[in-house]
Design brief:
- The protein has about 120 residues and is mainly β.
- It is about 0% helix and about 60% strand.
- It is globular.
């Protein structure tokens, strides 16, 4: 069964850092664009960062300079390094990826990991 599983969330104080990971498992032949989304409490899900197979990145304006997305294709994993965290970064963070699987290219979501930034 193909799935994406996030890890690395937690409770931190403002200014601290976290590193999120999202690993793909199952019969995955290739991974195309990968991204991190977040859903703050009471708000809609929003794109935080994305990265193509060529390593081209895109970031939400409010996280530029603080967050860095990267990927390890051999490990089928995407990372999100989050520095200088702010209370407004509090959200459930989900990874998303376009995967080439047995029956073609499909989009997959992870279940999410909670990030809470509070003093």
């Amino acid at each position: 069964q193909v799935q994406l599983v996030e890890s690395g969330g937690g409770l931190v104080q403002p200014g601290e850092s976290l590193r999120l990971s999202c690993a793909g498992s199952g019969s995955i032949f290739s991974i195309y664009i990968m991204g991190w989304y977040r859903q703050p409490p009471g708000k809609q899900r929003e794109l935080v960062a994305s990265i193509t197979t060529d390593g081209i990145t895109n970031y939400k304006d409010s996280v530029k300079g603080r967050f860095t997305i990267s990927r390890d294709n051999a490990k089928k994993t995407v990372y999100l390094q989050m520095n200088s965290l702010k209370p407004e970064d509090t959200a459930v963070y989900h990874c998303n990826a376009a995967l080439f699987v047995l029956d073609g290219v499909k989009g997959y979501w992870g279940r999410g990991t909670q990030v809470t930034v509070s003093s």
